[in-house]
Design a protein that fits this description.
single chain, Rossmann fold, 8-stranded mixed β-sheet, two-stranded antiparallel sheet
């Protein structure tokens, strides 16, 4: 019963994402400045209603690619500001996906997949989809991969994500685990590539005090990269891992 109520609540809260129109939530990248304003920009971003928020700029590059950013549990939003600014210089179809982080990740992932199907109806020339999920958002994105129903080339990037699952955030969810007590995700189709960007456990404030690293899991058709221990002379921890990953992907 509890799971049914959670599912009903999720569908209601995320219905705006499933029926996105050109007039739905929009933020101009100029409203999300970096530097000393990054925390304030993060508050503005994460305070948006549930569903897709389109990030607009003057860019018209790579119009056939859709980029979707998925935040983590109790996100303050600021970890995405630099990445969204970087994306805006290279792409014109950028979406931030806001959801209720108290909802089970498989349900959010399924709703995200349905929202993407609706989004594709408005972007009929789309040839690529890139989904970036940070922390808990990586679990959401990985479940989403198994629910997608299109043949478009898709990349799922999980960043500092506890893909193994752990009790603090999953204690109320009825999820499948394998014989190693790790989350069992639905398999995705061959047009989907999965990438894990793992922080170093001792550098990650969210994981360093845990007995085991919740990022360590083997998944179908998934490529693993271990992040360095520092960025620009500073510790590369949980939140700033987003900045490192996006900059390195865009620089390739």
């Amino acid at each position: 019963m509890k799971r049914l109520l959670l599912f009903s609540l999720t569908i209601y809260l995320l219905s705006c994402g499933s029926n996105i129109k050109s007039s739905d939530q929009v933020l101009n990248i100029s409203e999300l400045p970096q530097g000393k304003y990054v925390k304030k920009s993060g508050q503005k971003l994460i305070s948006q209603d549930n569903g897709f928020i389109k990030i607009v700029s003057d860019s018209t590059i790579n119009d056939n690619k859709i980029i979707i950013a998925v935040h983590g549990y109790q996100s303050e939003g600021y970890e995405w500001i630099t990445a969204l600014n970087d994306f805006s210089e290279n792409n014109s179809n950028i979406y931030f996906y806001r959801y209720d982080w108290d909802t089970c990740p498989d349900l959010v992932g399924e709703s995200l997949a349905k929202s993407i199907d609706s989004l594709l109806l408005l972007n009929t020339t789309t040839s690529n989809i890139n989904i970036y999920g940070h922390s808990y958002g990586g679990i959401v994105a990985t479940y989403c991969a198994g629910y997608l129903n299109n043949t478009i080339n898709t990349e799922i990037h999980t960043i500092a994500s506890p893909l193994v699952g752990y009790s603090r955030i999953l204690e109320n969810c009825d999820l499948d685990y394998n014989d190693k007590n790790k989350l069992e995700y639905p398999k995705w189709t061959s047009n989907i590539e999965h990438y894990q960007w793992r922080t170093q456990k001792e550098q990650d404030g969210a994981y360093r005090d845990l007995d085991k690293n919740p990022q360590e899991i083997d998944l179908y058709n998934s490529t693993i990269t271990i992040l360095p221990d520092s960025m620009d002379g500073h510790r590369l921890g949980h939140n700033w891992s987003v900045t490192w990953v996006i900059k390195n992907i865009l620089d390739k």
